[in-house]
């Protein structure tokens, strides 16, 4: 089942986020001072954003957070977080969640989607490419790659 996440689920969301991010940081998650609990609490109540989750057997196994960033065109959406529990990779969870995001974006009149993915996260980059995302030119030394999902030619 794919549905909107609720604030009471924030601790489960933070734990899934940490498990997924840990897979592409070989030295362990960086301690950059980010308060992920506060960040997710904010995302869950932000009126201009959404957090969708995939629930299987009463447990969150996938999540996506997106909104139109301030200063961006109204028809653009940014996918800020997209995570599938590593124990559920290659089972269609990410593909189903991605399709739900795109469906919602299209229903809301969003024509372009953007995301940033860590340059070392080749698995995620491959997933996004299979979903139709295209990398934008990167600057040397960037730790993230920006990708764009534009509508199919009409």
From TrEMBL:
> Would the keyword Lipid metabolism turn up in this protein's UniProt record?
no
Indicate the segments forming the N-acetyltransferase domain, all copies: 1-152
Write the record's keywords in alphabetical order, separated by commas: Acyltransferase, Transferase
Q: Which domain of life is it from?
A: Bacteria
Sections of the chain in a coiled coil: none
What the entry lists under CDD domains is as follows: NAT_SF (cd04301)
Give the protein's recorded name.
GNAT family N-acetyltransferase
């Amino acid at each position: 089942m794919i549905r909107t996440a609720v604030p009471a689920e924030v601790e489960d969301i933070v734990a899934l986020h940490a498990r997924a991010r840990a897979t592409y940081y070989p030295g362990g998650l960086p301690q950059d001072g980010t308060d992920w609990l506060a960040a997710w609490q904010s995302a869950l109540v932000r009126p201009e954003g959404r957090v969708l989750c995939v629930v299987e057997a009463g447990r969150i196994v996938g999540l996506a957070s997106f909104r139109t960033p301030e200063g961006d065109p109204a028809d653009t959406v940014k996918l800020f977080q997209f995570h599938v529990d590593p124990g559920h990779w290659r089972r269609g969870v990410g593909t189903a969640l991605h399709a739900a995001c795109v469906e919602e974006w299209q229903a809301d009149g969003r024509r372009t989607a953007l995301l940033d993915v860590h340059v070392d996260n080749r698995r995620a980059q491959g997933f996004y490419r299979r979903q139709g995302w295209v990398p934008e030119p990167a600057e040397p030394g960037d730790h993230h790659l920006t990708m764009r999902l534009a509508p199919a030619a009409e």
